[in-house]
Task: structure prediction
Amino acid sequence: MFELGSDVEWYERVRVEALGDDVRLSILRAVKNKLGFNGACSALGIAKSSLHRYLSGKRKIPSDVVKKALRHLEREEFESIVSEWDKLRALGVISDKGVVDYGLALKILGLASKDEYLKNAILKFVVQEFRDDLRKMLGISFVGIKLEWSENFEYFLMERKKRRKVKDPETLKYYKSLFEKYLQGKELSEKLIDYVVNHPNRWLRNVFRHYIQYLYFKRKISPETFGWIMEVVPSRSYKLDVRPYQISLEDLRKTLAFLKEKHQLYYTIYKAMLESGARFEHVLRMFEKWNPSEVIEIPGLNIITKRLVCFEDRGFCRYYMGLRGSEKPCEWVYFSADTLKLLREFASKHVNRHQVSKYAKRHNLILPKYMRKASWRLMVKAVPREVARFIQSRFGELRVSEARYEDLLGEADEEYPKYLGMVREYL
Result:
């Protein structure tokens, strides 16, 4: 990510309309080479004949296809495509003798004020290549600051931190163990920053960034120091790997059959995730906070309901979670009447998420974090995508308004049994 504190992916900042035909073709070829011809067609949602025409230059590559293609490239792969030396020569920025046209180069820099991706790419380059010069220019100093885990820092993580607060006790415990092992008592310095950036455990970056936010909140560091460190220390990166998304029905069958025979609790968790498409952590929270008879009011909608609503004639229930704001959203968790019977058996039980994942790895099962993806792939075959997004609380994609909430809730209740029927048929 380039922008400070932003959740927008790098490819969403790219102004695709500004990409020339040759760059578009290079992007498409890179995706085809990475995923294979058939895999690229599937990922981009286009016919094989269309991809052939795009690659052969017979048809201009539309912007929407390029946008989808960028999702399957690493940022570095994209930048290697658009930053070739020959292109700079072609644009006249660099002469055949290697002399830079300063006027034209400065005009390009001036465009950064109008192009979010270009601005952040320039900032990233400056931070990487001219870090010491930038620090001196800004007068950045952090002499005498020691890193200490404290109750105040814990409270900041859970209650005062902007955006996503750390609510999961297991996550907080893991953060504390990392901090005490690698950061406790160390003095903030460039050497420590380099140590964190290059540490093999990328989660240490997140813990360190949280602590820098805490220092800024407590006015222990200046805004310049805060901004510089947050640019230098990237958040935990996620490498795109298409393999985890390729979950076969046979793997799903084997996983569920194994758990049903060997571990009823984990089987219930997996079944609830598959039927609802809810995130792993949200299903575990539902288990722990189970309170089906509680009467609640949905904020802003004047809808009063019990947390658990069942439709016995249609064979399913939904449980209201109401997670919004700074947390990852989860409005309702849908599941079958059969799963409800299992849920009642394990109600109000705390489950360690790491133990579930370790168990899955040990027995070569599908990892719990991939069940949401598996559910999505099946659900969009059975119900309209807008309904699937609502059921799975993908509100960032849906942008549901309060005026449409009740309408979509009714549609979801109407369509959901179709999905359950597909799950029973396939699995």
